[in-house]
């Protein structure tokens, strides 16, 4: 037994002990699942068994690199195929003839520190008002901001009541909690001040609550495609370059969220799972946040003794909901869509990527090894989304996928080495493109931006 097989065997033993612990853990909880479903946790050993089998096969054949290449491709892309299947199986919840909840059963909270973009802000307010919730609450960070919001709203007060609250701090968690006491409706909607709803957003999202087990609802995200006029104050080449860079960041931000749409729609159809319900626009039953334990935990979350953590509010709510036995539903449809802006100047998207990365490494281990609910509640989501995000270093894995076939005898003896490499690279890019098809289908000119950036200014606008 060589070193790779030894390591794989140790890993298999470790995962087996972990799944045995998970079975014990879930059976000791209130309202445990059935014995068959609990025993099904042993299926979490399959990846480690696959690794052991790969190492053993690599020892028994001459083309070891070919075995590792095949294993790498399967390991890397099986979840894409699984998610494509469930993405196609997805169906949104549909309202009954006598819906349980309507727009007037909703209170909307907008935590804000002031409009960074007046145009987007006005669109956001108008879209909320067009949906006719019972109450709209702006929770601001200063008394001055409260006055500014009230002034900007002006004649758009078409809901029964609009409240302006001052939390005296720029902290989304505290600003949201500041408004909880004013919520008397059955459904609470938390909205970022850059999220622009579809005119029938609430009508499309509320049917998810027809199921009495659903406590939290996420929706579809989209990015506003911004027009980038050419800067006439600089020479033509500098103007084209600035236009290209602006469009590039806009599209990169767009496809990032479009990939999120793909994953949450697929995992929702697979086992009801989701890596996180986006805080840009989410709906939750009010009795969940009115739980006297929720507010204290929400405002006093510590990670490794550090905190209280101000970010990751949407991850906290997602974990809180499932840990208390509620289900989560994703409403992915054109009407249940909120549109936001990304990739504008000054660039905020790179900073958001850094925050999202920190969130992943803070929250996913907590969900996996502290809460542990997802192992039996969302077993497929664990392996298609939550675990892979901890090791999904695309530059490393894609480079390895291109390098590995070059070590095979087939490649060394071939007269078409360039064709083999091109086929490998094309396969990798196509699997990435699948998740972003909705954006490129709607804006095909942005395809050239993604693959042929230098040609972008000539084709895009």
TrEMBL record:
<keyword id="KW-0812">Transmembrane</keyword>
<dbReference type="InterPro" id="IPR029044">
    <property type="entry name" value="Nucleotide-diphossugar_trans"/>
</dbReference>
<dbReference type="Pfam" id="PF13641">
    <property type="entry name" value="Glyco_tranf_2_3"/>
</dbReference>
<dbReference type="InterPro" id="IPR052427">
    <property type="entry name" value="Glycosyltrans_GT2/GT47"/>
</dbReference>
<keyword id="KW-0808">Transferase</keyword>
<feature type="transmembrane region" description="Helical">
    <location>
        <begin position="6"/>
        <end position="27"/>
    </location>
</feature>
<keyword id="KW-0325">Glycoprotein</keyword>
<dbReference type="GO" id="GO:0016020">
    <property type="term" value="C:membrane"/>
</dbReference>
<keyword id="KW-0328">Glycosyltransferase</keyword>
<protein>
    <recommendedName>
        <fullName>Glycosyltransferase family 2 protein</fullName>
    </recommendedName>
</protein>
<feature type="transmembrane region" description="Helical">
    <location>
        <begin position="418"/>
        <end position="441"/>
    </location>
</feature>
<feature type="transmembrane region" description="Helical">
    <location>
        <begin position="65"/>
        <end position="88"/>
    </location>
</feature>
<dbReference type="GO" id="GO:0016757">
    <property type="term" value="F:glycosyltransferase activity"/>
</dbReference>
<keyword id="KW-0472">Membrane</keyword>
<keyword id="KW-1133">Transmembrane helix</keyword>
């Amino acid at each position: 037994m060589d070193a790779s097989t030894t390591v794989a065997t140790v890993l298999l033993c470790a995962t087996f002990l972990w799944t045995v612990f998970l079975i014990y853990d879930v059976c000791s909880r209130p309202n445990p699942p059935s014995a068959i479903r609990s025993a099904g946790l042993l299926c979490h050993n399959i990846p480690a068994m696959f690794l052991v089998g790969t190492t053993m096969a690599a020892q028994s054949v001459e083309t070891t690199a070919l075995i590792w290449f095949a294993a790498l491709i399967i390991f890397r892309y099986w979840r894409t195929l699984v998610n494509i299947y469930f993405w196609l199986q997805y169906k949104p919840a549909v309202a009954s003839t006598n819906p349980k909840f309507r727009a007037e059963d909703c209170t909307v909270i907008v935590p804000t520190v002031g409009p960074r973009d007046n145009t987007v802000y006005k669109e956001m307010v108008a879209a909320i008002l067009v949906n006719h919730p019972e109450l709209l609450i702006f929770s601001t960070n200063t008394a001055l901001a409260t006055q500014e919001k009230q002034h900007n709203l002006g004649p758009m007060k078409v809901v029964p009541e609009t409240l302006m609250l001052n939390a005296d701090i720029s902290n989304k968690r505290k600003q949201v909690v500041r408004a909880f006491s004013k919520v008397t409706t059955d459904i609470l909607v938390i909205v970022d001040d850059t999220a622009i709803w579809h005119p029938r957003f609430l009508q499309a999202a509320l049917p998810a609550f027809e199921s009495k087990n659903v406590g939290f609802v996420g929706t579809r995200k989209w990015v506003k495609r911004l027009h980038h006029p050419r800067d006439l104050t600089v020479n033509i080449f500098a103007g084209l370059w600035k236009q290209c860079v602006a469009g590039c960041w806009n599209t990169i931000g767009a496809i990032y969220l479009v990939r999120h749409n793909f994953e949450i729609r697929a995992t929702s159809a697979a086992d009801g799972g989701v890596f996180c319900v986006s805080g840009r626009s989410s709906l939750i039953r009010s009795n969940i946040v009115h739980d006297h334990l929720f507010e204290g935990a929400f405002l006093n979350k510590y990670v490794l003794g550090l905190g209280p953590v101000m970010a990751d509010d949407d991850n906290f709510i997602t974990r809180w909901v499932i840990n208390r036995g509620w289900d989560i539903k994703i409403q992915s449809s054109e009407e249940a869509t909120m549109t936001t802006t990304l990739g504008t100047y000054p660039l905020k998207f790179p900073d958001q990527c850094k925050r999202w990365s920190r969130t992943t490494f803070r929250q996913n281990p907590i969900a996996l090894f502290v809460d542990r609910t997802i192992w039996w509640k969302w077993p497929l989501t664990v392996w298609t989304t939550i675990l892979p995000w901890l090791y999904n270093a695309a530059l490393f894995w894609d480079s390895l996928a291109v390098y590995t076939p070059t070590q095979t005898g087939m490649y060394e003896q071939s007269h078409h080495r360039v064709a083999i490499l091109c086929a490998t690279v094309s396969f990798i890019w196509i699997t990435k493109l699948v998740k972003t098809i909705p954006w490129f289908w709607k804006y095909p000119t942005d395809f050239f931006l993604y693959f042929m950036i230098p040609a972008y200014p000539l084709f895009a606008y």
